[in-house]
Amino acid sequence: MLPLKVSRVTVRDASESDAPWCAAIYAPYVRETAISFESEPPTAARMAERIATATRTHGWVVLEDGDRVVGYAYGGPHQQRAAYRFSCEVSV
To answer: What whole-number distance in Å separates Cα of residue 82 and Cα of residue 92?
Structure first.
């Protein structure tokens, strides 16, 4: 039987101090794939702004494995019109 490695992961609310981790996770998707509509990866400072803006009205969570952030997910408004006020766009 193969050895089984069990790691302890935690999902928690993000803070602006998680921005460097989130920016580093996101950067390769911007630079190396066509799945992002951005042409330049956001800086850690810009990612901190995004976290601050998102968490005013929606959630932004990070996945920690030990002492490292290894993933994140967030929600944001889908549209500005009143009919969409209960709708949410998400990214993982």
So the answer is: 25
- CA 30/CA 27 separation, integer angstroms: 5
- What tokens does 1 get? 């039987």
Dist CA 92 CA 87 (whole Å): 17
What pTM did the predictor assign? 0.84
Q: Which one-letter amino acid corresponds to residue 5?
A: K
For residue 62, what are the β-bridge partners?
12, 72
Burial label for 36, CB within 10 Å (0-12, 13-18, 19+), is middle
Residue of 92, 59, 52, 62 lying closest to 77 (CA atoms)? 59
Q: Count Cα neighbours of 8 within 13 Å in the Cβ-side half-sphere.
A: 2
Could you report the per-residue pLDDT of 48-74, keeping only the tens digit for each?
Answer: 999 999 999 899 999 999 889 999 999
Q: Residue for token digits 């580093």?
A: 24
